[in-house]
Amino acid sequence: MASQAQQAMLDKIKVQKGFIAALDQSGGSTPKALKLYGIDPSAYSTDEEMFDMVHAMRTRIITSDVFSGERVLGAILFENTLDREIEGMPSAKFLWEKKRVVPFLKVDKGLEDEANGVQLMKPIPTLDTLLAKAVAQDVFGTKMRSVVKLANHEGIKAIVAQQFEVGKQILAAGLVPIIEPEVDINSPEKAEAEALLKLEIMTQLNLLNEGQEVMLKLTLPTQDNFYKELVDHPKVIKVVALSGGYTRDEANAKLAENPGIIASFSRALTEGVSAQQSQEEFDSTLDAAIESIYQASKS
């Protein structure tokens, strides 16, 4: 039985206009995120110092007056952020209680080496413990990423099967999984891979039991409106799009051509903000980014 907070979060994701902020860079992607924010690797010497700095960056974004549930539906965090506080409150609780932004948690542990044109997720041995922690902090859902490089049917079938297998474990814990089989935007077989991916996702969606609903996070497709069947599927709460290496302008333009899909951007959201900006400059830059992504997500 969903709690009152969970039901309110579900209603928000299903009904309200807006997008999801992906603030879940972890491990190897953290130095790159900090460098884009204007913090050079020479500024920190340990992982702890690095994560302190990225938490300060995320805190500055989340606490900004322009970041609120009016345009930002949700935010994806990673475990280190979940374990920290924002203005004296657990991060996930701060998001929902102070900002009315639905908290999600990244649960994957990175990618396996490429095989059959895809990168499966590494095993997640601590998943049950992580899900219990998320539930205790009123997190609504999770996100896990794997990557499709080529239009290899065997590989794509395996990647989607793995996503849904782990997704069912997440559903059983009372959380909503964001299934994310990203198609590399530089794939020489991108359109063909998307066709196979859609086929396999439809197959898995149709195997879900009554009452099981998921979200999907997909690369913006080569053919506009290609994922309409997924957007309209009764087992899909929402389809969200990753920016995948496109600039914000490119990603927004592509997003606007795919009605019913909303943004879940990471680098494209924080493009242009930096540690060196005054609060006024920072808020102004972030506000423009949020507004442009919000407008593209409204289509």
Helix tally equals 12
Total strands: 11
Strand content: 15-25%
Structural class: alpha/beta
SSE topology string: HEHHEHEEHEEHEHEHEHEHEHH
Could you explain the architecture of this structure?
The chain is α/β, with parallel strands linked by helices and 299 residues long. 44% of the residues lie in helices and 18% in strands. It is built from twelve helices and eleven strands. The strands form two sheets. Strands 1, 2, 5, 6, 7, 8, 9, 10 and 11 form a nine-stranded mixed beta sheet that branches. Strand 8 (176-183), helix 8 (190-207) and strand 9 form a beta-alpha-beta unit. Helix 2 packs across helix 3 (47-63).
Outline of the structure:
This protein has 299 residues and is of the alpha/beta class.
Jot down its keywords.
single chain; 299 residues; alpha/beta; 9-stranded mixed beta sheet; two-stranded antiparallel sheet; 11 strands; 18% strand
Helices and strands, with pairings:
Blueprint: H1 4-15, E1 19-22, H2 30-36, H3 47-63, E2 72-77, H4 79-82, E3 85-86, E4 89-90, H5 91-99, E5 102-106, E6 118-119, H6 127-136, E7 141-148, H7 153-172, E8 176-183, H8 190-207, E9 214-219, H9 228-231, E10 236-242, H10 248-256, E11 261-263, H11 267-270, H12 279-297
Parallel strand pairs: 1-2, 2-5, 5-7, 7-8, 8-9, 9-10, 10-11
Antiparallel strand pairs: 3-4, 6-7
Helix pairs in contact: 2-3, 7-8, 10-12
